[in-house]
Amino acid sequence: MEVVEISHEARDVYLIPQNFVDTGTILGGTVKLRNAVEAAMLAVGSAVPLFYLPLAFNIRLMIVIAVSVPLGVFGVVGIGGDSLTQFVAHWSRFMKRRRIVTPTPQGNLEANRHRHLRFISNPDRPRPIAEQMKNAAKLAEADRGSEAPAPQRRQPDRGDR
Q1: Which of these, 98, 97, 78, lies nearest to 88 by C-alpha position?
Q2: Cβ(76)–Cβ(35) below 8 Å
Q3: Closest CA to 19 of 28, 8, 27, 11
Q4: Residue 26 in 3-state DSSP?
Q5: CA dist 127 to 52, 74, 93, 118, Å?
Q6: Whole-number Å distance between alpha carbons of 1 and 49
Q7: Cα–Cα distance between 111 and 117 in angstroms, integer?
């Protein structure tokens, strides 16, 4: 009889990142291509006219850096996870389709009739705390009767020991 040796091979485990098959991204999947194109358009579009300002070169360069770099970063980041053009499209669609719902008095009364009837006809309606406290005091007075005086409040110990 022959002894068969079972080998326990150690297998390499490779973790596949979530963005492995993401297309349309650059810089290792950190920036979407659409956002990068929008950022480049914003940065270049603002830098070119600023270079034609009638100022010294170093002042023009500082102005371009102060304006174009934040616009480029804003273009890369986007708004709420969307690119700037997607956000503008969503905002314009919302503005075009928005509605203001104003119920008519008759419709409002019909919609809330069950609430009005419950509060008008229900004697066990929710009452304010002050009213509940007054009722509880009256009931406690009735339970004690007129012969028993109300309990006196104890004075705190003043340390006269």
Answers
A1: 78
A2: yes
A3: 28
A4: strand
A5: 73, 54, 47, 13
A6: 89
A7: 12
Q: What is the pTM assigned to this prediction? A: 0.49
Spatial separation of the C-alpha atoms in residues 40 and 69, rounded to whole Å = 10
Token pair belonging to 71:
């616009």
Q: State the Cα–Cα distance between residues 98 and 90, nearest whole angstrom.
A: 12
3-class secondary structure, 148:
coil
Q: From CA 41, how far away is CA 103, in angstroms rounded? A: 46
Q: 34 near 83, Cβ under 8 Å?
A: yes
Kindly list the distances between the CA atom of residue 71 and the CA atoms of 3, 45, 105, in Å, as whole numbers in the listed order: 73, 10, 49
CB 63 within 8 A of CB 92: no
- Distance (Å, rounded) from C-alpha 47 to C-alpha 65? 8
Q: What is the pLDDT of residues 109-159, one digit of tens each?
A: 555 555 554 444 455 666 777 777 787 888 777 777 655 566 666 666 666
Q: Which residues contact 36 (CB under 8 A, 6 or more apart)?
A: 26, 75, 76
Give burial (CB, 10 Å; 0-12/13-18/19+) of 77.
middle
